[in-house]
Amino acid sequence: MNVNPSFPIEAESSSRRSALAVWVRKRRWFLFCVMLPTLLAAVYYGLIASDIYISESRFVIKSPDQKKSQTSTLANLVQTTGISGGQEQTNEVLTFVRSRDALKALEKMPGIRDKYNAHEADYFSRFPGPLSDSSFESLFKYYGKMVDARFETEEGTAVIKTRAFTPQDAYAINARLLDLSEGLVNRLNARAQSKGIVEAQRQVDLATERAKAARVALTQYRNTQALIDPKQQAVGVLEISNNLIAQRAALQAQLDLMQRVAPNNPSIPSLRSRIGAMAVQIASQDSRVVGTGSGIASKLGGYENLLVEQEFATQSMTAANTALVQARAEAQRQQFYLERVVDPNVPDSPLLPKRFLNVLIVFAASLCLYFIAWMFMVGVVEHASED
Fold it and tell me: What parts of the sequence cross the membrane (predicted)?
C-alpha cells in the first residue's frame, strides 16, 4: 500500500483555505462596507490624488477721512469691533470675488480653464470632471470650490485663497482677483462721486445761466429806458426840485417884502419873472419823476423786478456753488481704497490634499455607517424573532 507523503500538507492547506473562506464569509459585510472604501481611499490619496497649492492674500479697505476728532465714543467702539465704514465695501468686494462676474473677468485671462485642466491634475480633480461638462455653470461651481473669499472679523482683514495644481497658477489667479478687486473699489468710488457731484454741478449750471439771463435782461432794460439806476436818478431830480423850491421861496419872500416897502421898485418885474421861471423848472423836474408815462416812477417797478431777479439768481448761484463744494468734500470723504496687507504668495509646497487625514475620515465614516446598519439589522432580527 502506497501512502502519498504530500497528503498531510495538502490537507492542512485546504483546511487553512476553508478557515480563511469562513472568516471572510463571516466578515464579508465589514470588509465590503469598511475595508474596501478605506483601501480605495488609500489608493486614491496615496497614489492618484494630485497636489493642490494654495495662494493667500489679505487686504483691508480704508477711507482717507477717519474722522478722528469728530467720532464719538460709540463710533469708536463700533470701529474697533470691525463694523467700520469700509466693511460694507469689503463685503461688496468679497461678493464680487465669489460672483460670476469675477469668473468672466478671469476667463479673459489666457488659460484660466487650462489652469484647472492642467496635466498635473488627476482625473477626479480637474475640470471638467467625470460628472460635469465644460459649460460656464459647471465652471462656476468648480470655481466656488477652488476660490475662497471671506472676512475674518477677529483680524479685521479680508482673505482670498486660491487653489491650483501648480504654485504659479495659484499665484496668478490670486493676483488677478486682487487687481479686479482694486478696480471694483475704484468703480465704487467713481459711482459715489458721480451721484452727488453731477447733480450739484447741474444745479450750478442752471443757477449760472439764470444769473446771466438776469444780468442781460437788466442791461437791456437800462439801455431801452435810458436809465442806469432809477432810484439814484429820482433822488437827484428831487434834490434839484427841492433846491429850486427853496430858491423860489426866498425870491417870493423878497418880492413880497419889496412890494410892501417899495411897490414901485423897478426890480419887481424881474423878480416875478425869475419866480415864474423857477415854477416852470420845478414842474418840469417833478414831471420827470411822476405824473407822466415816461416818468422815472413808472419805470421803477420794472427795474426793481429785474433787480430782485438778479439778486435772487446771484444768491442761488452762490448757494449752488457752496453745495457743489460740499458735495465734492463729501465725495472725497466717502472715497475708499484697497490696501494690501499680504500680497499673493507663490506656495512652495502643497497644502492639499491631506492624504492620511482623508483616508482616516473615509475609514471612520465607513465604520460609523457599518455599525448603524449592523444595529439596524440586529433590531430587525430581534423584532422578527419576537413576532
Answer: 29-48, 356-377
DSSP state of 33: I
Q: What is the pLDDT of residue 292?
A: 55
What are the residue ranges in the chain where pLDDT is below 50?
1-3, 66-84
CA dist 17 to 22, 28, 35, 68, 345, Å? 8, 15, 20, 84, 58
Q: Check residue 297 and give its pLDDT.
A: 57
The helix-helix angle for 87-97 and 167-225 (nearest 10°) equals 120
Hey, what amino acid is at 326?
Answer: Q
* Calpha distance 275→277 (Å, rounded): 5
Spatial distance between the Cα atoms of 154 and 278, rounded to a whole number of angstroms: 97
Q: Could you give the count of Cα atoms lying within 13 Å of 268 in the half-sphere of its Cβ?
A: 12
Look at residues 162, 169, 173, 155 and name the one whose alpha carbon lies nearest to residue 90.
155
Alpha helices in the chain (DSSP H): 7-26, 28-30, 36-43, 73-80, 87-97, 100-107, 112-116, 136-146, 167-225, 230-261, 268-289, 296-333, 355-386
Provide the 8-state DSSP code for 352: B
For 159, half-sphere exposure in the C-beta direction (CA atoms, 13 angstrom radius) is 12
Q: Is 195 exposed, middle or buried (0-12, 13-18, 19+ CB in 10 A)?
A: middle
What's the distance, CA 235 to chain centroid?
61
**Residue among 218, 192, 197, 138 nearest 335 (CA):** 192
pTM strictly above 0.70 = no
What is the spatial distance between Cα 218 and Cα 230, in angstroms, rounded to a whole number? 12
**Residue 323 DSSP code:** H
